[in-house]
Design a protein that fits this description.
The protein contains nine helices and five strands. A five-stranded parallel β-sheet has the order 2-1-3-4-5, sandwiched between helices. It binds CO-5-methoxybenzimidazolylcobamide. The site of CO-5-methoxybenzimidazolylcobamide has 38 residues, from α3, α4, α5, β3 and β4.
Length: about 210
């Protein structure tokens, strides 16, 4: 078993100390941080999601896996972010109201900060008004929303509608993402952009800021 497969399998078992230590070892062995993320941490979390869907594991197991994922992400973060880059723009980001899934949103924030954006992270379970107020107060160029539950996706439309009704749609763009979210849904609700993963989110936000 490769070290990346070993990281994935410890993550599946929620063994955060092992995930942290092996993530450090992988970096010390000069494995690229993005590869450790994709083929170790995210690969393990995909298995967890599938097992949870089939009722082979339960919520506490998923929580342990999430803790292990965060332990690995903490080690990777400085390697995914780059310092001293001229600001590319400002983005307010958060997980929408009713939704507590923040691992993907955190990853998107890390990658955007690494690409030189000022990231204002509102956290999770963020009410629609809070996204729009924060963008207006901070003069942000973009609002980024994450949703992992089909039941919380409609909150994204509320935010898009609020941006329009407050007349901010000339200056503030909206981008959405998260496992159940699709490009079709983004078009349907009138969001300006959609991204399927964190790296793609950077490209999308750059395009929106450049106009
Ligand atoms: Co929950 N959960 N969960 N969960 N959970 C899912 C989402 C689920 C698909 C599992 C399943 O059934 N297979 C399912 C949703 C079903 C649905 O709605 N269709 C589900 C459920 C049902 C629930 C609960 C309702 C369970 C319950 O209580 N009975 C509950 C809801 C709580 C709530 O939010 N109100 C719940 C709870 C939890 C935990 C708290 C235990 C934990 C979250 C911990 C945390 O985030 N701090 C958890 C987890 C970990 C998952 C799975 C297993 C993994 C999610 C994850 O972190 N993936 C998930 C299964 C799955 O997604 N396969 C599942 C790794 C992460 C890197 O990927 O978040 O997709 P992801 O982010 C990606 C892209 O989507 C994209 O980029 C990221 C990086 O590439 N992206 C963006 C994300 N946001 C973006 C924003 C952008 C652009 C791209 O622009 C702004």
């Amino acid at each position: 078993m490769s070290i990346l497969e070993t990281i994935a399998s410890h993550l599946e078992r929620g063994e955060h100390d092992e995930v942290r230590a092996l993530t450090e070892t992988a970096l010390a062995e000069s494995i690229d941080a993005a590869t450790v993320l994709d083929e170790g941490l995210i690969a393990g979390m995909q298995v967890v999601g599938e097992q949870f869907r089939k009722h082979e594991i339960f919520l506490p197991d998923v929580l342990m896996a999430a803790k292990a994922m965060n332990a690995g992400l903490e080690i990777l973060e400085p390697h995914l972010s780059a310092a001293d880059i001229k600001s590319q723009g400002k983005i307010v980001i958060g997980t929408v109201k009713g939704d507590l899934h923040d691992i993907g949103k955190n990853l998107v924030g890390i990658m955007l900060a690494g690409a030189g954006f000022d990231v204002i992270d509102l956290g999770k379970d963020v009410p629609p008004e809070r996204f729009v107020d924060a963008a207006a107060e901070s003069d942000a160029n973009v609002i980024g929303m994450s949703a992992l539950l089909t039941t919380t996706m409609p909150s994204m439309k509320t935010v898009v509608d609020l941006v329009k009704s407050r007349g901010l749609d000339g200056s503030v763009r909206t981008v959405i993402g998260g496992a159940p979210v699709t490009e079709e849904y983004a078009n349907e609700i009138g969001a300006d952009g959609y991204s399927f993963d964190a790296a793609n989110a950077v490209e999308c936000v750059k395009r929106l800021v450049e106009g």
